Amino acid sequence: MNDSDKAPVAVFDLDNTLADTAHRQRFLERRPRDWDAFFAAAPHDPPLAEGIALVRESAKECEIVYLTGRPERCRRDTLDWLAAHGLPEGALHMRGNADRRPARRTKLEILRRLARTREVRVLV
Question: What pTM value is reported for the model?
Fold first, then answer.
């Protein structure tokens, strides 16, 4: 089976899509921004019901892929959060720890790479 024969993918962002980051925004409102504290607080994010429902519904027809601007050092916490909230398994694409580019650029790069070999049916 080649990639084009596989189920389409549904790609979900994490922050403010599946996870409510409101409680940790204060770390980004100061100068300099405290990214370490921002990401360290991520395991305490409450789930966003609408996003959670959509990922579960999408999993019925699509392979789930998670795409985030979080750095690789947050992988364990992120996987634990996904599991704790009963979300479907799926590949987790993260930025490198030293990658300081805006998340919108890193996410687009990963999405384009994914779309070269797979049908992206849903992007949230």
Answer: 0.90
